[in-house]
Amino acid sequence: MAISRASDVDPKKEATVHRHKTETGEADGKKWVPTYEIQQGSRSITSAEMEERAVEIWETMGHSKGEIQSMAFYIKPAENRVYSVINGISYNFFLFP
């Protein structure tokens, strides 16, 4: 979302996304794996926590973690929702329960 001036920001609806990088080793070199933290007011959630929630819901839908081939998140802080797509199957859950 583009914001043209500071007065356009509604602190009750805007979320701050912080990127953190975690280094992981590989046999033939090093790879960076980005992780994210979303903050809104006094609440925050990391990408690892969102992934954990998405996998838990996926498993309650009768699927197994081993089936996961792809995972994407579409985050809408103003709606307090995370839209998750695993293997082409979409569902959503609360960003901040």
Beta percentage is: over 45%
* Uncertain residue segments: 1-11, 18-23
Amount of helix: 10-25%
Shape: globular
| Alpha-carbon distance between the two ends | 24 Å
Question: How many beta-strand segments?
Answer: 6
SS field, number of helical segments:
1
Rg to the nearest angstrom? Answer: 16 Å
The chain-level structural class is mainly beta
Q: Main sheet: which strands, in order across?
A: 1-2-3
Quaternary assembly? single chain
Mean pLDDT score: 77
Structural features, described:
The protein has 97 residues and is mainly β. It has one domain (13-94). 14% of the residues lie in helices and 46% in strands. The protein has one helix at 47-60, and strands at 16-26, 29-40, 43-46, 71-76, 81-86, 89-94. The strands form two sheets. The chain has a three-stranded antiparallel β-sheet. A hairpin with a 2-residue loop joins β2 (29-40) and β3. The protein is globular, with a radius of gyration of 16 Å. The relative contact order is 0.15. Residues 1-11 and 18-23 have low confidence and may be disordered.
